[in-house]
Amino acid sequence: MTVAVGLLVWILSAPDLRANISETLSSGRPWAVALGIFIAGIGIAANVWRWRIFLQIQGIHVPPLRLARIFLIGMAFNLIGLGALGGDAARAVLLMRDHPGRGRAIILSIIADHLSGLIAVAFAATFFAGARYEWFMASTLGKTAFFITIGSVAVAILLLAITFLAAADPKRRLIPKRLPWRDKVLDLADCYTLFSRAWRRSLLACAISFIVLFCYFAAFYCGALAFAVDIKMFDIFAIMPVVDVLTMIPISVSGLGLREVVFEELLGQMAGTPAGVATLISLTGFLCAILFWGLAGWLLLPFHRRLPPKNPPPAPPVSPHI
Residue 229 region, left (φ>0) first, then alpha (ψ -120 to 50), else beta? Predict the structure, then answer.
């Protein structure tokens, strides 16, 4: 939290930037913010649908509205923690309370949910960011960010390939015993084995990932529309995979501060967007895609109750009055 606040204070302390923000806010379009929140909501609904598929494959059936509430509560915890671990832990704990003894299956569903999203991110980084290769090479930060993103995606794909090998080897002989985090790799291998048996539904979940990612990126494009900034949607989609990878670094809450620095630098040097406007686009996208729905999760948290047992024990017999 300290890092996030410090970065935001540093960004907003420049006099020329504050002047840009004041001028841009005066021409704001509230309808674009509402549109961004709506589009982000569609993406969240798709994300809940995707997660529900992975739960159903393992025989865990949760009503859609209840699962959506748990997902939003997870987003609420993402607002106070570094990275997505806090939200994932909240989702897992709430579901484990409803389904005791199914903890491993619930955790595997969350892992599969993230892995299916990784496929869409890899595509976006290759297609959108790759198409703007010369754009990124025009600045030192852009070049560094681009290669960090491509490198991170390459490492993730390599790890996926290793776990696929483990899944294809029932005796686990292909995975060296001294491999770091070998147990985690084998857990992922078990995950692949399980979901490959329901490959049609697993493919559907992977396809839904593209809807989730498109809505998330589009919410940030609505941030540009909110201030009548002349930026192409393709350009926002080109920088978003890079921004996402960099904000995964657990040094600030929900990427706050770090995301604004990256937006300011990339949109400033590559698209000629004034620093204050780029910061507003980033903060508005954060409001639409993360903050609004995370706050909704906090509002829902007091009303969330544990489900009663499916087969409650019989009530003890009542002694007759004498």
Answer: beta
Please state, rounded to an integer, the average pLDDT across all residues of the chain: 80
Tell me if 242 sits within 8 A of 135, measured CB to CB. no
Phi, psi of 82 (to 5 degrees): -85, 125
How many angstroms separate the CA atoms of 153 and 123, rounded? Answer: 10
pLDDT digits (tens, 9 = 90+) for 245-257: 887 776 667 777 7
Q: Answer yes or no: is pLDDT of 166 > 70.
A: no
pLDDT at 319: 46
Phi and psi for 253 in degrees, rounded to 5?
-75, 120
> Where does the chain have alpha helices with state H?
2-12, 15-25, 30-57, 64-78, 85-98, 103-124, 130-131, 133-136, 140-167, 182-196, 199-225, 233-247, 258-271, 275-286, 292-300
Residue 78 to residue 254: CA distance in whole angstroms: 6
CA 222 and chain centroid, separation: 18
CA 215 to chain CA mean position, Å: 11
pTM for the model stands at 0.82
- In 182-274, alpha helices (H): 182-196, 199-225, 233-247, 258-271
**SS3 state at 253:** strand
Q: How far apart are the first and last CA of the chain?
A: 66
Q: Give helix 140-167 / helix 103-124 axis angle, nearest 10°.
A: 130
Residue type, 250: P
Neighbours of 140 (CB within 10 A): 10
Structure tokens at 112: 């599969």
> Cα separation of 127 and 122, whole Å?
9
Q: 50-101, pLDDT tens digit by residue?
A: 999 999 998 899 999 999 999 999 999 988 876 677 889 999 999 999 999 8
Per the structure block, which two tokens stand in for 213?
């990612």
Query: Comparing 207 with 157, which gets the higher pLDDT?
Result: 207
